[in-house]
Design goal:
Layout: H1 7-14, E1 17-22, H2 29-37, E2 43-45, H3 46-56, H4 58-68, H5 81-88, H6 94-122, E3 127-131, E4 146-151, H7 154-164, H8 169-178, H9 182-188, E5 191-194, H10 199-213
Parallel strand pairs: 1-3, 1-4, 2-3, 4-5
Length: about 230
């Protein structure tokens, strides 16, 4: 990882390895992150960061309300995720709405992610993982030392997503199609973990890969972009 700070801080940051865990909807990236966290490595979830900021950052909330309306927040100020999803993933101008939402939310999430990474490194962590579905879509890929793509069969992902959410098969497929294909993510990433079998086999594969990553050197010739669109 490399950011434009003073030389002493740069040296500290450049000694750390920051690894992204990505994958499509219901691929199992969160399960991989949980397995790694049990080995006492810090995990940053950009999804959790986004939810926290969308609920608590006043400036971000104003931007979202201006774009999508007051109905996306409940009367107590908490985000009405269902309503926002209905607006963004409606069939009319869906792609444009998704791009607009991302352009508003991604920059502040990326800034918070970088701040969290730097704090962890300052506190002595030298191997940090970031779980993010949209590493490539957000243009974050150049900022990581290594990228892991968690993959799973297409139908398996759809069935998992249908089980975990109230979304229809058509809605899930539409959301899958808004992301870069799984095949392209695998091609672009440094490592792949397949998640088509048991949790035990996923755990074994993750721990094996972790044992390799623990000995990999950092890369230092890049930086994260805070641009909302790649």
């Amino acid at each position: 990882m490399n950011q434009n700070h003073n030389s002493k801080q740069n040296n500290t940051l450049d000694n750390a390895v920051v690894v992204a865990i990505t994958g499509g909807i219901a691929s199992g990236k969160s399960e991989v992150a949980k397995i790694i966290s049990k080995k006492n490595y810090p995990i940053i979830s950009t999804d959790l960061l986004a939810k926290d900021l969308m609920n608590n950052d006043i400036s971000l909330k104003k931007k979202l309300i201006n774009e999508f309306g007051d109905d996306i927040y409940f009367s107590d100020g908490t985000l009405n995720s269902k309503k926002l999803s209905e607006i963004v993933f409606s069939t009319q101008n869906e792609s444009q709405k998704i791009k607009k939402l991302n352009s508003i939310v991604h920059p502040i999430v990326i800034d918070k992610m970088i701040e969290t990474i730097e704090s962890l490194i300052t506190n002595g962590n030298r191997l940090i993982f970031v779980e993010s579905a949209l590493v490539y879509e957000s243009g974050l890929d150049a900022g990581f030392d290594y990228i892991i793509t968690v993959s799973s069969d297409y139908e398996t992902r759809i069935n998992r997503a249908m089980t975990r959410t109230n979304l229809s098969r058509e809605e899930i497929i539409a959301r899958i199609n808004e992301q870069i294909s799984q095949e392209e993510k695998i091609r672009l990433s440094d490592f792949e973990i397949e998640n088509n079998k048991s949790i035990k086999e996923l755990e074994d594969a993750t721990i094996l890969l972790l044992s390799i990553i623990e000995f990999l050197p950092p890369k230092t010739d890049y930086s994260f972009s805070t641009d909302g669109d790649k």
